[in-house]
Amino acid sequence: MIKLLFQKFGKINTSVLFLCILFCVLELVGHRYGETSIEDFLFFPAFFGFISCIVIFKLGVSLRAFLMKDEDYYDK
Amino acid sequence: MISSLPPGFIMVLGALLVPFLPHIIRQVYMMILILISSYSLTLGFGIHSIINIMDYEFILFQSDALTLPFAIIFHIAAALNVIYGAHEKHWKQHVSIISYSGAAIAAIHAGDLLTLFVWWEATAFTSVFLILAGNSTRSYKSAVRYIIIQVISGMFLLAGAVILLLNDGNVLLTKFDINTLHGQLIFIAFGIKAAFPLLNGWLQDAYPEASEIGTVALSTFTTKLAIFCFAKCFAGTEILIAIGAIMTFYPIFFAVIENDLRRVLTYSLNNQLGFMIVAIGIGTELAINGAVAHAFAHILYKGLLFMGMGAVLYRAGTCKASELGGLYKYMPITAVCTIIGAISISAFPLFSGFVAKSLIMSALGKEGLVLVYFMLLFASAGVLHHSGIKIPFFAFFAHESGIKTKEAPKNMIVAMIIASALCIMIGIFPTMFYQILPYEIIYEPYDFSHVVGQLQLLTFAAFAFICLWHFKIYPPELNSTVLNSDWIYRKMLPGVLLPLLKLINKGNQKLENKINSTFSKFKLFFYNYMLNNKVFDRDAGPDTLIVIQIFTVFLVIILSQVYFF
User: Which residues from A are below 8 Å from B475, CB to CB?
Assistant: First the structure.
């Protein structure tokens, strides 16, 4: 299965996936706490990181319509 | 003699000799200048040099716990810049870099506002040549806009200083109250240089237009000088927390859609300045240490990223994500160093960004500023997205661009390796690093919660990017211009003001025509009268004589009135 994952998803991508799993397992082994009480929820940084990246991407792409102009916009 | 000179001054003075030296000797000479300048750092804290001009005391050289870390990193950065630019044979950029670095170093040692003002303007005038070295019409125009804005910032500083001088009788560089007029003017002056929201346009406009060497130097000094000044004069000013939080937040979205990778880095620079501004706004000892540590670490890893992109620009001739890719095969060392810079800025454990950013996040947590804390946490994920992944990925991997080139020049590689080594050393030995910070602290960044929490945040954010790219959701990079706050004075104001001026001009023209026609009629009447009465005749006849006589009589009467009565 791992071999298939390597083939389909790529070696680096699969490695990052395994790292994600490893760091989640680490949280189960030790006691993690945050600077704020909300962060104490299980796997909170993992969810926050994943969702933040998606939100940044979606918002960024939607801003293209307003902010993106031709390369010579200021030279016209 | 040297001990009475402010650090950096010798570099500014020594720059005058740079054009006359042969290439290799010039590089050695500049390193010696930096070494001599750094000697002043060993003199200890206190006021070391004052001069009197017209009953006014200029404190040229003052050092304390806050100036020391900035002075150390400015000297290191100046040396790295000299090494990085060593392949450049022409003297112009070298003069600019050494005098610019010297002016910034002298500025942080100023003990009063007027001395600061002199160096403040000196940093602007010495650095503008690095933008001009971009050698294109665009870089020329950007340089003009850059210098105008920098001078405006200086004018605000001078106005604040003058008002303070009139009110208090002195202009010592100390903590200022934001509620006073002079405080507000100085705050704006610093805010322009720190690239506050809506005042940041010059940063993204000018820096990417500079030469590959120039951008590395520019990224180091100007904005960090402003951070130093804020830490010195406005620590604990609450409004800075809000401004800083906005600064960390909005550049992320611009960086995501920007195509020019050096411009992406300037947005990232803006975002990192936000972290420092928030920390200064909190103002506690832990937070100020965080701001200084972040400025120190940031100069190294942001310099490293700019060095990497500078090397790419130098070899590939472009820095646009849409035109790059697959360069890791040709520039492996540059790729590795850029990745180290990217990992550092993303704040992975064992790298400099982690040990610096942890201080700020802990300071926020301790003060209970939950909303700002989460804004900065969100911004941390954004940093990974645009600087941690986008920069190395689109330059060295992504798709095959077809560009075949060779590794960066040796001097560039040496500078990048030194900067990379420093990023790792700071990350591995944080206790040593914390010792140079302004306040003594006992802080352990490597506890289980910090490390695991940060690793989860970053790896999952990276995994999100991987998913977007792998499933082809991530759109291709496009050649484009992304609108920023400089749009206000580059498009909007000319768009509004020019038609208005034309309208006013048109009205003026009508009014002028009317006045002219009335005046012409009067002139014609007068001329005809004079002509008919032969007043203008070349041959002086009896009429002329009569007129002269009448005027003479009037003149005598008037003069006698003035002198005798």
Answer: 61, 64
Residues in B touching A36 (Cβ below 8 Å)? 365, 370, 373-374
Single-letter amino acid, residue B267 = Y
Q: Which helix (H) or strand (E) holds B396?
A: helix B391-396
Confirm or reject contact between B271 and chain A (CB < 8 A): no
Which B residues 335-394 touch A at CB under 8 Å?
Answer: 361-362, 364-366, 370, 373-374, 377-378, 381-382, 384-385
Q: What is the pLDDT of residues B258-287, one digit of tens each?
A: 999 999 999 999 999 999 999 999 999 999
Q: Extract the tokens encoding B562.
A: 């003035």
Closest residue in B to A8 (Cα) is B470
Q: Judge contact between B297 and B427, C-beta under 8 A.
A: no
Q: Taking a C-beta distance cutoff of 8 angstroms, is the pair B98, B81 a contact?
A: no
| pLDDT score for B373 | 94
Are the CB atoms for B276 and B426 separated by under 8 Å? no
Q: Tell me whether B253 touches chain A (CB under 8 Å).
A: yes
- Calpha distance B131→B470 (Å, rounded): 38
CA distances to B235, B261, B311, B335, B380 from B328, rounded to whole Å, are 43, 16, 12, 6, 26
Give burial (CB, 10 Å; 0-12/13-18/19+) of B91. middle
More confident residue, B8 or B530: B8
Chain A hits for B460, CB-CB cut-off 8 Å, are 20, 45-50, 53
**Residue B502 confidence (pLDDT):** 86
Residues in chain A within 8 Å Cβ distance of B208: none
Chain B CB contacts of A27 under 8 Å are 452, 456
CA distances B8 to B38, B59, B119, B478, Å, are 8, 15, 10, 43
Chain B residue with Cα closest to A64: B257
Q: What is the pLDDT of residue B541?
A: 57
pLDDT in tens, B62-103: 999 999 999 999 999 999 999 999 999 989 999 999 999 999
**Between chains, do A20 and B459 touch, taking CB under 8 Å as contact?**
yes
- Best mutation target among B460, B467, B471, B487 (most A Cβ atoms within 10 Å) is B460
The stretch B162-169 carries a mean pLDDT of 90
pLDDT at B511: 86
Residues in chain A: 76
Task: Return the minimum-mean-pLDDT range out of B2-6, B309-313, B355-359.
Answer: B2-6
The predicted structure's pLDDT at residue B253: 92
The rounded percent of chain B whose pLDDT value lies above 90 is 72
The residue ranking higher by pLDDT, B507 or A45, is A45
Question: Is the confidence at residue B358, as pLDDT, over 90?
Answer: yes
- Is residue B477 pLDDT above 60, yes or no? yes
Name the token pair of B545.
């004589």
- The secondary structure element, H or E, covering residue B335 is helix B332-345
Closest CB from B365, B457, B465 relative to A36: B365
